[in-house]
Each structure stands twice: as structure tokens, then as C-alpha cells.
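Section 4.2 – Deliverable D4.2 (structural model, holo form)

The reporting period included a commitment to supply a predicted holo structure for the target in complex with NAP. Inputs used:
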Amino acid sequence: MASSSLALSSPAGGSTNSHNRNNKRAKTKHYYTEMQASLSPGNNSTDGAAATPAAGKLEELKQREAELSKLLASVRREKLSAIRARPLTIGVMGFGRFGQFIARTFSKYGRIVVTSRSDYTDIANGMGVKYVPLSNLDAFLAEDLDVIVVATSILSFKSTIQSLVPHLEKQLLAKAGKGDSAIVKGPLIVDVLSVKEHARQVMLDLLPPECDILCTHPMFGPDSGKKGWHGLNFVYEKTRLDKVVLEPESNNYNVNNNDSDNEEAFVDTAGQVHSVHEDSEAHVEAIDRVERFLSIWEEEGCRMVPMSAKDHDAYAANSQFITHLMGRILGSQGLSSTPIDTKGFESVLKLVGSTTADSFDLFYGLYKFNQNSLDTILQLRSAMDEVVDKLKVMEDEEQQKGNSVDPNNSKVVPS
Ligand code: NAP
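Output (C-alpha cells):
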């Protein structure tokens, strides 16, 4: 494979770097030898000789580590050129705050067509992407989209999918009329909703079987991702590929399966194991397309997290939802900067700013469509009571000890 030879040669302009690295290694080796010599009792015994292989081993491992990271860099370069050699045409439905944020990055990798209720022609033009009004979904689909990313609000997601379906069916029918119906495929439909079980169910219930489904949640947005996506979590579940609905708990490919011979197998909801090499053009195409789309996020440096929609929602209620809830609660207290802000308070203000920058529709969607969110609110309430009770108990104890507590100065709100 081209990658291995590429990997072991120096990258262009890398000779000075590799010279520096070699120098550094030589220095490190020298340091270890010196250290060993100084640690060896008597400084000339056979103990010193016995320790030498360990130091040599470390050096060897470091060299292998460096070679592997070169190999990884080269594979990533190859991967990037593979994506760019066959770029996807990606449609984005919902060109609001988040839709614009992702479309900007997608445009580095492929042709982007966006659609939305509001007229975003100017913003789209400024970004070099094409805008089609939401009222003309036939024109949107006529753009020959490989992938459609639905980035509308959580609240409008179901109605958006409902309105898309007849147009998809019309397109599929037209394709089937033109040729071999066995390989007629619709676009891959991807959602980016901050709640996953709802999105998964709606898409499985409504989308035609010819459309593959990928559920995703980028755990970042225009604020947290404004300096790039590197290291930010990207949660995804390959939900349906080539008409096979994948078993959510199997975490798509092989997560419960450590057998390396079976690395590219997955289980459907009927418990049947499928190979990604299944001999069907449609199947290979489905896998390839989803991988090319996921590669965009990988290339941007996201931390890729395969996870079932159910697990996502359970985790998100106690992480993302509680963050938004606290931000909203603190925001409604009307907090503002003082001349003596601590770093902690600056973080609080930042939390308020970032959570209230998102629409209230988004917050309401997090609450309404995550079955765990009400529990989170109830737990927060009881945690607040618990903490206040502790203050009360301490105040009572002080009183009982005879320490006079001025009743006018009793702080704790009576329950
Ligand atoms: P949002 O308020 O949740 O959604 C705004 C988008 O929804 C706009 O594109 C808007 O279109 C569209 N929309 C609203 N009501 C609609 C309706 N009845 N019919 C059709 N379209 C409608 O704000 P957002 O921040 O842009 O989020 C979009 C999606 O991304 C949400 O599902 C959210 O969960 C997800 N997400 C957001 C973030 C984030 O940090 N903001 C992060 C990860 C995922 P118009 O602008 O044309 O009116």
C-alpha cells in the first residue's frame, strides 16, 4: 500500500525536524545512560549491565511510537485526499444558527445546498453555498444530494421530516422508473438534534426504507466550536443502513465484540449479524457514504463517540440539559459583572451567556423530548433543598450550643 512507504519517508520540509528529533533522542539516550550509571551501586557492577536492555527497550518503543504517528499522519492525509477526490453533495435543512455553523465547515469538503423557512440567500452566497427556499423541496432534492443533514429545531423536526417524505418518495419513484430499481437509493438522512431517541424514532417511522439513517449529536455549537472542532465530542449512531435497522445496544459496529476476525460485522434489530462486505452494491455504497460523511467530522478533529440514542439521552439529561437549566436559572436572576468578579463568577457569567445565546425553542426541546429531563429538574430541586437544609441544621446547632443567633440575622429561608 502506498501509505506505508509514504509513512516512513520524511514529510516535505521535515529534514530539520527529524534532525532535531534525532538530536533529542540522542540526548535522551545519553541522559538515561548517565542516570543508570549513577544509580548502579559501585557504578561498575553487572547490575548496571542488566539494566541496559530496559533503557534500550524504551528507546526502541519510542522509535516505534514515532514511526506509528508518522504512519497515522500519512493515513490521515490519504483519507483526506480520498474524501476530496469524491466529494459529497450535502444538503442542509434549517439554515439557522447551527445550520450555518456546520455548513461553513462542510463547504471545505463538498458542495453544499441549504434550505430554510427564512430567506438566507445573502448569508449562503457569502459562504459560497447554494440556498433553495424550503417551499421548493423538489428543487432542493433535484440538487442530487448524497446526504441531507436536518438541522431544524427539535420542536419542528417531525413536521420537517413529514414535509420532506412525499418529495423523497417522488424522487425515488422517478429514479426507479429510469433504471434498475434494485439499486435505487435515496439520500443518507442525518439529524443533529440535541435529543436522540425522538429523532431516531421519527426517522425510522417516517423515512422511506431507501434512505439510510444516521443519528448524530455534535456536542458543541457556534460558541464552543468557534475556534475549531478539535477534541470536541461527536456522538453518532448508525441507525439504518441499506434497509437494515441496526441494534442500538451493539453500538453500531462491533463494540460488544472483541473478536478481531469479526471487526466489520454489525447486528440488526432481529439479532442477525451482517458483514460490511455483504455482496450488494447498495450495501457497499451505504457503508461508503456514511463513512465519508463521518470522515468530515474526524478530519476536523472531533472525538468520535459511537453511542445508542438511548444512552445519549440518559447522559445528556445529566450533563447538557442540566448545564442549560443552570444557565437559564442563573440568567433569570439577572446576574451581571461586578468590579470585583472572581474567576468562578466569570465562569458563571460565561455559562449564562453561552446557554442563553441558544434559542428558547432549543431549551424547550431538550426538556420536552428527553424523557430523562424531568427527573433532572426534580433531582436539582431536591439537591437545592438538601443544601439549604444543611445550612438550617448548622444554624440550629449553633443555637442549641448556646451561641446566640440573632433571630433577625437568621439567614436560612424557613421551609
Ligand atoms: P433552533 O432554534 O433549535 O433551530 C433553528 C432552526 O430551526 C432554524 O434553521 C429555523 O429555520 C428552523 N425552524 C424552526 N422552526 C421551524 C419550523 N416550524 N419549520 C421549519 N424550520 C423551522 O436553533 P439552532 O441552534 O440553529 O439548532 C438547530 C438544531 O441543531 C437543533 O435541532 C439543535 O438541537 C441542534 N444543535 C444545536 C446546537 C447548538 O449549539 N446550537 C448544537 C448541537 C445541535 P429558519 O431560521 O429558516 O426560521
